[in-house]
């Protein structure tokens, strides 16, 4: 059974909030001086340098006090490498597959085959855009039921040939829309979860950005789940949680802390098997290094899992999820 | 036939009394009826046919043969693994209000003589939300059904995963679905009945994995919340959106069954699938070897 988490470090949370406010203020002052310098042709560079030094210090201190909300911000960073970047870099000769054979091809879900470290694998992952145009084309990485069914189709293909599945997870949510409901969003997620608990081939999951509730879980059941240091994984977005708990979406950072959605906390809960370190300051600052770290972790796990007999694999997978939960049992 | 009128004796559950007062008012049409008459009508409004939400005990009373229920694991209670602000107080309040320790009751019983494993989610307890205890108990009843080679019937009524247990609640979707998968593999029947409301994480796991999925008339059934969808698509949704009838029309469930016929319908299905339990062995073995049900080539 799962262990209870230690108390939150509320002092650090408060310090982080303070530092963020300081940073915003410093940035505003820098911008103001810059504008005046440009307008009045004056030299404020010593003052600007001083402010920038202070901002750098605050940024450093914030890194040391990194709290849930910073993870939320980093996990959603537009320049953060997306699932398609991971998949297309990790796999050689990546060949994309399309369609769920039932309704249509969902552009919010990527699925395909390729070679990972010399081994044939099937990869799946939501397709998030890097700018507004891309995001609209790919529905902000929020799959419809047909996206999950496409992913399941790809996983069944992996099972047929005994290839490992690599799932890269970064989605805000399953798409909340009328068409999605009409076509059975809940059923599609439930079906994927059920099938993934018994898919007769190894499944390795990397949560690299946003793990948005059921929409993420529908491609995140695996023998091993690794998670990037600043990725998040949550039952409800912090904004939604704040709106429900306090009828106040502006208390999202508090909700983010309460939900325990960081990689370190999820590892402590046994939900995540390994936390993969990110480049200092976040994966967006050095995407190649971030992808390389994920590659190294995936390689290790894939190598180990392919050596296990399938029945053993499934027994372990069942036992792993069977033990998740915390309750008290006494007469 | 009308034996649900007499309340069964629950072994270990503390039965809570029906809401106080002699009269009850229908929240939809405002009709005032004798409380006793409402209960006699299975808590369906005699005027507008609104199916009032039921507590888990009432559901079991209305469904099972009198005196047949044996509850298991009533003592499981939620802890506070995340140390989530206010969770302990909310749990205490819900326990006080409902007399239950968490949001599901599980056990064995019979319906028109067919023995079955059964679970009923308790909406009055924190919206029937699924945290570790609900996930654990649903998993246990599926595992117990498997051991006893009995069918499983689950009545769902839930707002979804319990926020206060964070990602641990999310993992209950996997745990319960994995246990249901084992029932399917063992060729045991699993009937899922969706009552008002069944949404979020419960729909995205065991509720939508039934061999046969039934629903009560008018029940709200869906994954995402109506408000979230309206904000996303910037359109008003029709009134019937995400109702049981809407789900039936879109092919998501098998049937909408009025409460007055639910017991008989479930019993009929149990008899049907229960009988196949005994007869199916050789055929199913044949299927595994690639021979069709009639013995012809698959």
Classify the beta-strand content of chain B into a percent band.
15-25%
- The succession of helices and strands of chain A, N to C, reads HHHHEEEHHEHHEHEEHHHEHHE
- Class inferred from helices and paired strands of chain B: alpha/beta
Terminal Cα separation of chain B, in Å?
44 Å
Query: Helix proportion of residues of chain B, in percent?
Result: 25-40%
User: Helix content range of the residues of chain A, please?
Assistant: 40-55%
Radius of gyration of chain B: 20 Å
Low-confidence stretches of chain A: none
Binned strand content of chain A: 15-25%
Q: Biggest interface and which pair forms it?
A: A-B, 60 and 64 residues
Which stretches of chain B of 5+ consecutive residues score pLDDT under 50? 1-18, 282-298
Short description:
With 331 residues, chain A is α/β, with parallel strands linked by helices. Chain A has helices spanning 10-40, 45-64, 68-75, 83-90, 132-137, 145-161, 178-182, 185-198, 213-217, 238-246, 252-259, 263-268, 287-306, 310-322; strands at residues 92-97, 109-116, 119-126, 165-171, 203-212, 224-228, 232-234, 274-276, 327-329. Chain A has 14 helices and 9 strands.
């Amino acid at each position: 059974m799962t262990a209870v988490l230690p108390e939150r470090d509320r002092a650090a949370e408060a310090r982080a909030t303070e530092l963020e406010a300081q940073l915003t203020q410093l940035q505003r002052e820098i911008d103001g001086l810059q504008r005046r310098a440009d307008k009045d042709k004056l030299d404020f560079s010593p003052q600007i340098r001083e402010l920038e030094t202070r901002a750098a210090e605050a940024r450093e201190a914030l890194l040391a006090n990194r709290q849930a909300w910073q993870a939320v911000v980093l996990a959603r960073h537009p320049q953060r490498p997306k699932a398609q970047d991971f998949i297309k870099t990790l796999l050689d000769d990546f060949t994309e597959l399309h369609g769920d054979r039932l309704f249509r091809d969902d552009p919010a879900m990527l699925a395909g085959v390729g070679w990972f470290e010399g081994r044939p694998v099937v990869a799946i992952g939501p397709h998030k855009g890097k700018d507004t145009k891309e995001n609209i084309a790919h529905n902000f990485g929020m799959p419809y039921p047909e996206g999950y069914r496409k992913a399941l189709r790809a996983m069944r293909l992996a099972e047929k040939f005994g290839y490992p599945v690599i799932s890269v997870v970064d989605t805000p949510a399953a798409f909340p829309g009328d068409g999605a409901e009409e076509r059975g969003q809940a059923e599609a997620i439930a079906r994927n979860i059920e099938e993934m608990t018994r898919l007769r081939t190894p499944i390795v999951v990397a949560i690299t950005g946003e793990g948005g509730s059921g929409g993420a879980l529908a491609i995140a059941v695996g023998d091993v789940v690794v998670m990037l240091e600043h990725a998040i994984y949550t039952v409800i977005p912090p904004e939604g949680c704040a709106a429900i708990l306090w009828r106040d979406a502006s208390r999202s950072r508090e909700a983010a802390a309460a939900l325990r959605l960081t990689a370190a906390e999820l590892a402590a809960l046994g939900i995540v098997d390994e936390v993969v370190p990110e480049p200092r300051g976040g994966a967006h600052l050095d995407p190649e290094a971030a992808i390389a770290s994920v590659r190294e972790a995936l390689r290790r796990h894939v190598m180990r899992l392919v050596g296990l007999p399938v029945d053993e694999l499934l027994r372990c997978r069942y036992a792993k999820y069977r033990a998740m939960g915390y309750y008290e049992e006494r007469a | 036939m009308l034996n649900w009128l007499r309340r069964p004796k629950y072994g270990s559950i503390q039965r809570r009394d029906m809401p106080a007062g002699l009269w009850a008012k229908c929240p939809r049409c405002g009709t005032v009826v004798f409380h006793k008459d409402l209960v006699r009508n299975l808590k369906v409004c005699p005027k507008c046919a609104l199916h009032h939400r039921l507590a888990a005990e009432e559901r079991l009373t209305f469904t099972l043969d009198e005196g047949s229920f044996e509850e298991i694991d009533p003592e499981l209670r939620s802890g506070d693994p995340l140390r989530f602000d206010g969770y302990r107080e909310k749990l205490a309040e819900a326990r006080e209000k409902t007399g239950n320790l968490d949001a599901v009751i599980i056990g064995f019983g019979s319906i028109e003589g067919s023995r079955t494993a059964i679970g009923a989610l308790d909406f009055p307890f924190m919206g029937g939300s699924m945290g570790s205890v609900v996930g654990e108990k649903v998993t246990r009843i599926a595992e117990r059904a498997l051991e006893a080679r009995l069918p499983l019937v689950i009545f769902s009524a839930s707002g979804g995963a319990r926020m206060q247990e964070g990602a641990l609640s999310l993992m209950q979707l996997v745990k319960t679905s994995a246990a249901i998968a084992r029932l399917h593999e063992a060729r045991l029947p699993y009937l899922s009945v969706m009552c008002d409301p069944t949404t979020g994480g419960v729909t995205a796991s065991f509720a939508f994995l039934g061999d046969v999925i039934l629903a009560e008339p008018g029940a709200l059934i869906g994954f995402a919340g109506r408000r979230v969808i309206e904000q996303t698509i910037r359109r008003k949704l029709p009134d019937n959106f995400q109702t049981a009838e809407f789900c039936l029309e879109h092919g998501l469930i098998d049937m909408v069954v009025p409460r007055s016929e639910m017991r008989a319908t479930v019993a009929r299905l149990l008899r049907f699938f229960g009988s196949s339990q005994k007869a199916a062995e050789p055929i199913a073995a044949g299927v595994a070897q690639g021979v069709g049900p009639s013995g012809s080539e698959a």
